[in-house]
Amino acid sequence: MFVFLSKFLPLFVFPLGFIALLIVAALLWRRGQRALLVAALIVLWLGSSRYVAYAMVRSLESRYSPPPVLSHVDAIVVLGGGTRGSDPPRPMTEINEAGDWILYGAKLYHDGLAPIVLVTGGSIEWLTPEGIAAEANDMSALMKLLDVPPESLWLEAQSRNTYENAFYSQRMLAEAGMDDILLITSAMHMPRSVPLFEAQGLNVTPAPTDFLVSDAEWAHLWRGGPTVTLVNLLPNVEYLTYTTRAMKEYIGLFVYRLRGWF
């Protein structure tokens, strides 16, 4: 039930869902219609502004910087979320924007930082079409294409959220007497992931990737001139997506703390 509610309820808090609720309320409450429609417009404008989106993303991504030097560890743990399954008409397992995680994990393995790559990610029954493989299987297929040998690949395919990623990964690692890991996920997801894995008793070195806002982009945002400022103020669906993703992480941090998971 928790997994379902964690996927369902935030939809009404994220900008698009909240805007829909405001519009529905405006249709039902004629006296407050104008105020509700103005509120919906404000939420849409702010949520899809590059300034708001970048500020929210940056507040998460800046918490863990890539270490200047990485030391040898027991295992590299790569979280799921970077793949699309090989179901037709796709000719093979594909990567999405978060596919950086898989590329970076393979790179660090070939750099000799760990003998094991543990890919973690299952599937949610009611969200996944029948017959579709778990994320860990898709990630494993791509790792093999990147010349990570099968004997170095461990698959954790039970987890349905980040807490379960940490829980089941720790159990696999503990059976082999391992507790030092390099953790790979997006920079924005790292503030939620690190404390979850540490709460399981693992020694975690964050190795963030998939940064949405670079230092140069952040600096340019504030000194781009009047033309750039005007464009940045206009609504943009890409930045609405950024804002939504950042809100998802903040909601996750809040809920996971309430549950005492870290």
Computed Rg: 20 Å
Main sheet characteristics: 5 strands, parallel
Count of helical stretches? 11
What is the average of the pLDDT values? 92
Separation, N- and C-terminal Cα atoms? 20 Å
CATH architecture classification of the largest domain: 3-Layer(aba) Sandwich
Structural class: alpha/beta
- Helix-strand pattern, N to C? HHHHEEEHEHEHEHEHHH
Please tally the β strands and state the result.
Answer: 7
Strand residue percentage: 5-15%
**DSSP helix fraction:** 40-55%
In CATH's first tier, which class of the largest domain applies? Answer: Alpha Beta
Number of domains: 2
Spans of at least 5 consecutive residues with low confidence: none
Tell me, what's the shape?
A: globular
Corresponding CATH superfamily of the largest domain: HUPs
Instruction: Provide the spatial order of strands within the biggest beta sheet.
Output: 5-4-1-6-7
CATH topology tier name of the largest domain: Rossmann fold
List the helices and strands and how they pair.
Blueprint: H1 2-8, H2 15-28, H3 33-47, H4 50-61, E1 75-79, E2 83-84, E3 94-95, H5 100-110, E4 117-120, H6 135-145, E5 153-156, H7 162-175, E6 180-184, H8 190-199, E7 203-206, H9 215-222, H10 225-233, H11 237-258
Parallel strand pairs: 1-4, 1-6, 4-5, 6-7
Antiparallel strand pairs: 2-3
Helix pairs in contact: 2-3, 4-11, 7-8
